[in-house]
Amino acid sequence: MKYDVAVVGAGPTGAIASKYAARNGARTLLIEEHSSIGSPVQCTGLISKAALVQCEIGEGNFVLSRMKGAFVYAPNGDELTIRGKDVMAYVIDRKVFDRELVEHSLDAGVELMLKTRFMGLQNGGISVLSSGVIKDIQADLIIGADGIMSSVGRAAGLPRCKKFLSGIQFEAPYHARDPEFVEIFTGNNFAPGFFGWAVPFAGMARIGLAKNMGYKPALNYLEELIKHPVLASRYTGSRTEHVVGGIPLGPPDRTAKENVLLVGDAAGQVKPTSGGGVYMGAVCAKIAGEVAARAARKETDTGEYEKRWRNAVGRELSIGMIIHKSLGKLSDENLNEFIGFLNRPGMSERITKYGDMDHPSVLLKELLRGADKMRLVRLLGVAFKTLF
User: Fold this and answer.
1) Is residue 57 in a domain?
2) How far apart are CA 112 and CA 92, in angstroms?
3) Is 221:209 a contact under the CB 8 Å cutoff?
4) Is residue 177 domain-resident?
5) Of the chain's two ends, which shows fewer C-beta atoms within 10 Å, N or C?
6) What local confidence, expressed as pLDDT, does residue 166 receive?
7) DSSP characters for 127-151?
8) CATH no. for residue 195?
């Protein structure tokens, strides 16, 4: 079993990386430890329009709902309404979405092995456990797209991400106030360091939260979240699709070493402001696949991947991390004041015009140009003084 490129993990980033490796002339293998693509699901399934474009996939039958805005609730119950000019995001069925992306990679010539677990690196390739049998697979380049706890990264001795959030989510029948609006819940009683959410679709909602490590278990905060007056008035009480997981934030100092490179969650290529990884992962996966194919032909090395992906999204991730850390340090009182600041007359128009799920720095830069710059700096801390 000899390949130019072996990709570990058949999620969106793995599928796209393998497709781009094959498109660039590499004989490519994609392996997935589970018996089916897209399972288990550990995602809100909310992705931006730009993410669909980056994934090179149009609106398919995986789209469950279209979102045009968000209701953001301060700890004191005050509401900030963010309205988009058009569809801002899609609620998707990740199982169907992931499978379609893998189908695209197969169309490009990628070979797929399910029920195949990465066991370790070896000279000239990888060792896997496939359907209960240990196999050695020769591969010149290995792409680790195997998620937050990347076994490929550990085997290569690459450092871990800077920070991890713990998350929990379930699906339930839900009487949404507006089925085209996501609901965001802030406050340290519900989600210290991050936020909770209710993402509606077809009479249901995905209800969950992510939080900083080192506090009470996520389930404890979830029980508090569902007591929120807004949620309590719309959530009927039953639960399905209960999942727990983690979100990696802050890429490590190195994501490539010798003939190994990491992409997606494995490389911390996740938006620190929202926890979304599909857009960033897709951008970086294309680079990873192309560079791996060329490196297999000795035309370049994995250092090119490191340089190119950081040039593409590194600044946005760095700014996003500063925003995340600054917001995460706010007390509930400060959060109330911050959301009140955004609720001022004329502010919603600026948010609508400059808001971007995938590039929050665009909105931040605009806000810092405004007359209330110093108030914003005071609200979010001195860290913002060094941004621009």
Assistant:
1) no
2) 24
3) yes
4) yes
5) C
6) 94
7) EEEETTEEEEEEEEEEEE---TT-H
8) 3.30.9.10
Q: Residues 118, 227: contact at Cβ < 8 Å?
A: no
The answer to whether the Cα torsion of 22, 27, 33, 36 is positive or negative is positive
Report the amino acid identity of residue 19: K
Cis peptide before 40 (omega within 30 of 0): yes
Q: What is the pLDDT of residues 66-92, one digit of tens each?
A: 999 999 999 999 999 988 778 889 999
**Range from 8-12, 260-264, 313-317, 384-388 carrying the lowest mean pLDDT:** 384-388
Please give the average per-residue pLDDT across 183-191, as a whole number: 94
Examine the domain organization and report whether 234 and 168 are in the same domain: yes
Contact call for residues 293 and 6 (beta carbons, < 8 A): no
Helix, strand and coil percent figures for the chain, each rounded to 5: 35, 30, 35
307 shares its domain with 341: no
The number of CA neighbours under 13 Å toward the Cβ of 3 is 28
**Are residues 148 and 14 located together in one domain of the fold?**
yes
Percent of the chain beyond pLDDT 70?
91
Q: Does the pLDDT value for residue 376 go beyond 70?
A: no
> pLDDT tens for residues 126-151?
999 998 999 999 999 999 999 999 99
Q: Provide the residue range defining the domain that includes 103.
A: 2-44+94-161+252-314
